[in-house]
Amino acid sequence: AAHRGLALDHSVATVPDAALALALCGETGPALQEMERLTTAAPTNAVVNDVYLPEVKAAIALAQHHPEQVSGLLSSTSSYTQVSKAPHLLGRASLEMSQWQQAVADLQPGIRYRGLALQEGPVGTAQAPDYTLCLLGTARAQAHFDKLAAMRSYQQLLEIWKNADADFIPAQEAKRERAALQGGS
Q: How far is CA 78 from the centre of its chain?
């Protein structure tokens, strides 16, 4: 989908999300190339240079298994935490480094400010993808130090995803992780 979007449009409305998707899927070269093209076209655009480019670089660091770089790469996004992908990316980095409590703290803005990241879904319904991914990360982190809170987070998440397609991998993972947590209680 990211490649298809970029084949149709290279604007600031498309490139940042497409490049982020590419980076998170491990296509780091094309992701960085698209963002560099955008920053060259919009050298004074603060959101492009201070938010979108660092987010893509942080996603590349995650894809290349360098979670320790993520916080530094996202330092310029701090003023935009409520509306950026930074909470999700920081939380993923903390999870990868087994810093469970830090992961919960990093992911919290993505949960607290979920309405600010609403996007329209394919059938016109509001979606908050960062919210659900932050909630999933929170449940995963909580499972290491507060199983009851993790169960609540998984339950809340699965309620949101109750009508998800059967092959929706994050929902499958959440169900499996919750079941394992119940079995280990």
A: 16
